[in-house]
Design brief:
Oligomer: single chain
CATH superfamily of the largest domain: FAD/NAD(P)-binding domain
Number of strands: 20
Largest sheet: 7 strands, mixed
CATH topology of the largest domain: FAD/NAD(P)-binding domain
Strand content: 15-25%
Shape: globular
């Protein structure tokens, strides 16, 4: 591969691919992004509600998400960010409990006073952990039991683990959970209330702003083109999409690891392909309801009830007001699950009919007539399962042949996937490739 290579092909137009392309284009490298979907954004893609773009899958930022905020500031778009206090709650034993502040925690009656104190201390102890590598040989379940005791684990943490990871709940690493506690604890106001950030017009509006900058700098974005294979050909890299062919000096893949493995299966060594398939992924089904009125005053309601089939009830318009969506109230019901799960395979109508009675059991006043519209979105590669010693499973960013590179959400560690870290990693590899070229 020559040192004067000047073109890069990026597979995937999520935030990782966009951030990398932004850095490459700024450095004068010819960059092309190829995206299989019709729209950019990846898991942050959107649809229209009341004349406004709404995320297909719920999103927010923490106030300590420095990398995304730095890019927004760099683009001169800081005025598009809104930071608001949010109400967080728990549904347990057919009752609602507010859990937004330390005082709410002291009032959480499902736990005795001693266990409430242990729960509060657990968060403080977790946030003080610096040497996270020491947690790699522990599961989240074992670690949380150590810190808070069995009753705190069963009432507070076990339902959340099962709701998020389903059959993999007992495998999840303590590192993953530690990072979640650390992030949420660092996004609070002076009174201890949680404060979160959102981008006006949805996350896709930021994706579109980055894309516009890439194009203005000479880059190209091709949507609706699914790459079938990647292979080295005469000193370059060739990507095929049906009868279309894309060529570049280097390729950066930002898809899920098994998808990347399929793209190079025609020539890569079996042991390398096997290494890409060691990390399991969960899919996601997200039911989005447009209602004519609000369900409650809570933004994020964790459902600590094993019979409820979703991880939580997220009333988006208790965070970003209904006036932004033609007066409609937006509710997300999300479920992480294997792609073989019955719920994942249901039709949109079946998912709605299945979910409604559960929601009505929580909110008895809810009537079907309140639902003005409903949408169902599915993602096959939504959440890598972060197990013990996950650092040993992460593939290198440089592929088995020169000029092939990899940057995906499965490589973001010890942090979990998310826009902030997708931007961090995308910009970092974009800068590195630009410097090398």
């Amino acid at each position: 591969m020559s040192n004067d290579a000047k073109s890069v092909l990026i597979v995937g137009a999520g935030f990782t691919g966009l951030a990398a392309a932004y850095e490459l284009a700024r450095a004068g490298v010819k960059v092309t992004i190829v995206e299989w979907a019709r729209d950019i954004g990846g898991l942050a893609s959107a649809f229209d509600v009341g004349g406004t773009k709404l995320d297909r899958f719920y999103h927010h930022w923490f106030t300590n998400d420095a990398h995304v905020m730095a890019l927004i500031d760099e683009l001169g778009l800081t005025d598009q960010v809104r930071i608001n206090p949010t109400n967080t709650g728990v549904y347990y034993a057919n009752s609602f409990f507010k859990l937004s502040t330390p005082l709410d925690l002291l009032r959480f009656s499902p736990l005795g006073l001693f266990d409430r104190i242990r729960l509060g201390l657990l968060a403080l102890r977790a946030r003080r952990v610096k040497a996270w590598m020491a947690l790699e040989d522990k599961t989240a379940a074992d670690w949380l039991r150590e810190l808070g005791g069995e009753r705190v684990f069963k009432i507070v943490w076990q339902p959340l683990l099962k709701g998020k990871f389903g059959p993999h709940a007992e495998e999840v690493s303590a590192v993953w959970f530690w990072n979640k506690i650390k992030l949420r604890g660092g996004s609070r106001g002076k009174a201890g209330e949680e404060r979160l950030a959102y981008y006006k017009g949805g996350f896709v509006a930021l994706a579109e702003a980055i894309a516009a900058k890439i194009v203005a700098l000479g880059g190209t974005i091709q949507c609706g083109a699914k790459i079938d294979s990647l292979a080295p050909v005469e000193g370059k890299w060739r990507a095929t999409s049906g009868e279309r062919v894309f060529e570049a000096d280097r390729v950066l893949v930002t898809t899920a690891l098994p998808v990347y493995a399929d793209l190079i299966a025609g020539w890569a060594a079996p042991d390398y392909l096997d290494s890409l398939r060691r990390i399991s992924y969960l899919g996601n089904v997200c039911l989005v309801l447009e209602l004519d009125r609000s369900l409650s005053s809570t933004y994020w309601l964790n459902v600590n009830d094993a019979s409820f089939p979703f991880v939580g009830v997220i009333e988006h318009t208790n965070f970003e007001g209904p006036e932004n969506y033609g007066g409609r109230h937006i509710v997300y019901l999300s479920k992480y699950l294997p792609e073989t799960d019955r719920l994942f395979l249901m039709s949109d109508d079946e998912i709605f009919d299945y979910a409604l009675p559960y929601l009505q059991a929580m909110f008895p006043k809810l009537e079907k007539s309140w639902v003005l519209a409903r949408h169902v979105w599915r993602a096959r590669w939504s959440q890598p399962v972060v197990g013990k010693h996950y650092s040993r499973l992460i593939p290198a960013q440089d592929g088995p042949l020169p000029g092939l590179h990899l940057c995906t959400m499965a490589q973001i560690y010890p942090e979990d996937r998310g826009t902030n870290y997708a931007i961090r990693e995308g910009r970092a590899i974009g800068r590195r490739l630009a410097a090398e070229m």
